[in-house]
Structures are given as structure tokens and as C-alpha cells.
Specification:
With about 260 residues, this protein is of the alpha/beta class. The chain has a single domain, classed as 3-Layer(aba) Sandwich (Rossmann fold), CATH 3.40.50.300. The protein is about 35% helix and about 25% strand. Helix 4 crosses helix 5, helix 4 packs parallel to helix 6 and helix 6 runs parallel beside helix 7. The longest helix is centred in the last third of the chain and has 18 residues. The structure holds adenosine-5'-diphosphate and magnesium ion. The site of magnesium ion has 2 residues, from helix 1. The site of adenosine-5'-diphosphate has 12 residues, from strand 2 and helix 1.
Length: about 260
């Protein structure tokens, strides 16, 4: 099954002084269980792309279908399906986690939504299960986000995303806001969980090293355009576009052997 069919997607923001074309005729097919990394510099349109895939904003033109259904923000039933199957981890857990809620309530929120899949067991049991899956002790459930380290907060964000058993995980620079000391750990965790759960992953990042580690497919985004896409090993060893080659030269240690 196809996770995403993205056809001719463009997004123009009407800025105060000028229009910004954040995405320009973006096309990509993402099959289920693939792990995609979309790499691009700051301002290349990465967050815009993920917000469109999550149904948070609508493209200016073009169409997206998710797991065979056309994404239409006006269609409540289709959006309910989307929220069941697609979850997102945001860049900065300080702003994505509600500071007034305890961790257990943050994690269980997507489970209590009227749009959520009916739970097979008690919500508390699922919270304990996902806390364990991300390597946090159950006691963390009673803590508030500010009592945790950045790495722990991002693990809570991951637990929250996984709690409703999504089929697709979207991740926006999931480790770039963390201290360097926490990055490898959170990335390994994400990697292990996505693989063991057989999820489809769409992760955007400015860091080719992150993609090489986690993703079997890569797309290169430049100024809102997808300049290259394909298997990670192929793109990294034989870049087909001069811009990709430039990115690889800037990060020579990520080049595949
Ligand atoms: N809400 C918005 N209004 C106006 N311009 C925006 C908005 N969001 C993003 N942009 C602009 O769109 C472009 C792409 O932004 P973004 O998708 O956030 O890129 P990235 O995540 O790769 O840094 C940038 O030029 C950015 O300034
Ligand atoms: Mg961004």
C-alpha cells in the first residue's frame, strides 16, 4: 500500500511584503514501511512539507493522498482517519509539550480524543507501555515537562506519538533542538522503534548524517523543489544532482564507503 502520493504540491505564503513559495511542484510516492529522510537547508520548505502531510495546513495547489485516501481538510471523516494513522514529532519538545500537563496526561491525550481508535485496554496501561518503549521509568508519568531534560522530553514526545499505534510517523528535525550528548540516543531510539513497529517514517532534517543513520530513502529539497530522490546508499554514493554532491562535500564523513 502507498503511504503517501504527493502530486504537484505547491505552497505559497502571503508574507507581509512578498509572497514566499515554500514548496514548488513537489512530487513523491512513499510506500508503506519505507523510511524517508528529506534533507534541506533552513528555509527549504521542510516544515511546510510535514505540516501538509500531517493535514495541519493545506497546499496552495496539488493533491496528497494518505493510505489511499485523498487528504481533504474539509472532510471530517477523512481527517479522523488521518489522525488515527499519522502522528508527528515536532522539532522542539519545549514548545510541543503542554507545560501545564503531567507527562502521563500528555501521552494519553491522543488516546482520549473522540477521534482516536478505541483502546483495547486501559489508557494507563498503554501509557506505561509506551514510556517503557522509550526507556523512561513509569514515575516520569507524574512529572511535568520542565522537570525533564531535553532528551527525556523528546522521548515523551515520541511516546505520545506512538501511543495511538500510528502507521506513519512524521518527524521534524527530531534531534536538532537537543544537546549533542542526547542526540545519538534519541535517534537510535527512534530508529529502533520505527523498525520494530514497521512504521512508515518521513523525517525532515538539515543533517545528512541523521538520514544515513535512519532512512533507507532520501530526498533532497532545495528552495522548495525536490532536486533528487532515491535509495539512501545510491544517492550518497552516486549523487545525481550537483547540489546533493555539494551537500555531501560539506559533510564528507557521511559519505557511504
Ligand atoms: N507561516 C508562514 N508565513 C510566511 N512565510 C512562511 C511561513 N512559514 C514558513 N514560511 C517561509 O517559507 C519558507 C520555508 O519555510 P519552512 O517550511 O519552515 O522551511 P524549513 O523547515 O526547511 O526551515 C521560508 O522562506 C519561510 O520563511
Ligand atoms: Mg523547519
Amino acid at each position: 500500500m502507498t503511504a503517501y502520493e504527493i502530486r504537484g504540491v505547491s505552497k505559497t505564503y502571503a508574507g507581509r511584503r512578498r509572497r514566499v513559495e515554500a514548496l514548488d511542484n513537489f512530487n513523491l510516492t512513499i510506500n508503506e514501511h519505507e523510511r524517508w529522510g528529506i534533507v534541506g537547508e533552513s528555509g527549504s520548505g521542510k516544515t511546510t512539507l510535514l505540516k501538509i502531510l500531517a493535514g495541519l495546513i493545506a497546499p496552495t495547489t496539488g493533491t496528497v493522498s494518505v493510505l489511499g485516501e485523498t487528504l481533504d481538510r474539509g472532510d471530517r471523516v477523512a481527517m479522523a482517519h488521518l489522525r488515527r494513522s499519522v502522528q508527528m514529532v515536532f522539532q522542539d519538545p519545549r514548545s510541543s509539550l503542554d507545560p501545564r500537563l503531567r507527562v502521563a496526561d500528555i501521552i494519553s491525550e491522543p488516546l482520549r480524543s473522540p477521534l482516536a481508535k478505541p483502546q483495547t485496554g486501559p489508557v494507563a496501561a498503554r501509557v506505561a507501555e509506551v514510556l517503557d518503549a522509550v526507556g523512561l521509568p513509569e514515575a516520569v508519568g507524574r512529572a511535568y515537562p520542565h522537570e525533564l531534560s531535553g532528551g527525556q522530553r523528546q522521548r515523551v514526545a515520541l511516546a505520545r506519538a506512538l501511543a495511538p499505534r500510528p502507521r506513519i510517523l512524521l518527524a521534524d528535525e527530531p534531534v536538532s533542538a537537543l544537546d549533542v550528548s542526547h542526540r545519538a540516543h534519541v535517534l537510535n531510539l527512534l530508529n529502533d522503534l520505527v523498525r520494530s513497529m514497521g512504521l512508515t517514517l518521513v523525517m525532515v532534517t538539515h543533517d545528512l548524517g541523521v538520514v544515513r543513520h535512519t532512512c533507507d530513502q532520501v530526498g533532497v529539497l532545495r528552495g522548495g523543489r525536490l532536486v533528487e530522490s532515491g535509495r539512501t546508499v545510491t544517492v550518497m554514493t552516486h549523487p545525481g544532482d550537483s547540489y546533493t554532491a555539494e551537500l555531501l562535500r560539506a559533510r564528507p564523513h557521511v559519505r557511504a564507503a
